[in-house]
Amino acid sequence: MKIILTGSTGFIGSEILHQCIQHPDISSIVALSRRELPKDVTSNAKLEVIIQQDFTGYSDDVLKRLAGAEACIWALGNATTNPEAGRKANFDTTLAGAETFATSLPLQPDSRKPLRFVYVSGMLAERDQKKTLWFAQEGRRMRGQIEKALVELQKQHNDSITTFIVRPWMVLSKERTAMSAIASVGPSIRVDELAAAAVNIALTGGDSQIVDNGVLVKQGRQMVRLKSKAV
Questions:
Q1: Cα–Cα distance, 11 to 146 (Å, whole number)
Q2: Which of the two ends of the chain, N or C, has the fewest CB atoms closer than 10 A to its terminal CB?
Q3: Cα–Cα distance for residue pair 117/3, rounded to 1 Å
Q4: What pLDDT, in 10s, does the model give residues 166-209?
Q5: Per-residue DSSP letters for 150-188?
């Protein structure tokens, strides 16, 4: 299976990339990145890195290199307090990617299945833009706008794209530390469990378009246990 990945230099995206490389059912990974990835990663034959500075537009050459992908995990995001910059860095880029893949990316030649687009959202994303929020207002509203737009995009192009929205709460390091032990008292998920769940959704889909933290934890832990038994 060929998969597209964004955000591969970030905390979550780098773990997703690591697990994609190790997964036996993934034969090809195309990472769209603003900068080069480490050599110990790019040396893997599965991985192709495309340096993409502008995530709101894709050249014909890039689309040709993405052709045949069956899934995309979108882990790209940028936290900012500037609403205008935040919209461009998050909403505009995510929707441009999803819309392009839905309308301009050829489907896998031997399959008529839509591309699975997995968006890594976050806790308490709020789609109601008029609702009063007491904390993290901009980020929650922005994620809510993106989620709503992705749901509508699937309705318009359900023959070419299926969107999944994963909503992790606090994402913890996979190494157990005193800080992670304290943080795990509340709703949380280890980054390796989140990555495993996201990869599994990209590979197999799911029954629910919205995948909340509890389901991610359960699914991710199961995938991590299966992986450890196989080693």
A1: 21
A2: C
A3: 10
A4: 999 899 998 776 666 666 667 899 999 999 999 999 999 999 99
A5: HHHHHHHSTTTEEEEEEE--EEE-SS--HHHHHHTTSSE
The HSE-up count of residue 15 (CA atoms within 13 Å, CB side) is: 19
Is 189 in contact with 172 (CB distance < 8 Å)? yes
Q: Name the amino acid, one letter, at 117.
A: F
Where are the strands (E) in 67-144, listed by range? 71-74, 115-120
User: Which neighbouring-strand residues pair with 4?
Assistant: 30, 72
Q: Tokens 């505009």 identify what position?
A: 92
DSSP letter for each residue of 68-90: T--EEEE------S-HHHHIIII
